[in-house]
Amino acid sequence: MTRKHFIALADKVRVYQLTKYRNGELENKPPFLIDVLADFCQEQSEAFNREAFIGYIRGDCGPSGGKIKG
What range defines the domain where residue 24 resides? Predict the structure, then answer.
């Protein structure tokens, strides 16, 4: 998988996560889906940046792990 693939996958998961949080469906539950997907991506590429992937899904950073553009 390429970096573009990882970002596209993160976009899909991010929309899912944000929708579930807004609906109150993920309160007090671990982010199991994110961890499983990050494990898979890490297995696919040694260059995979787990922290940036998870941070982007959670809205903590941009798609490359940097600051979110305003």
Answer: 3-58
Closest CA to 54 of 69, 27, 36, 70: 36
Instruction: Look up the pTM and report it.
Output: 0.60
In a domain, 18, yes or no: yes
Per-residue pLDDT of the chain (70 residues; tens, 9 = 90+): 788 888 888 888 887 777 776 666 655 555 577 887 888 888 888 999 999 998 998 889 998 888 877 6
Domain count, the chain: 1
64 assigned to some structural domain: no
Quick one: tokens of 24? Answer: 């109150």
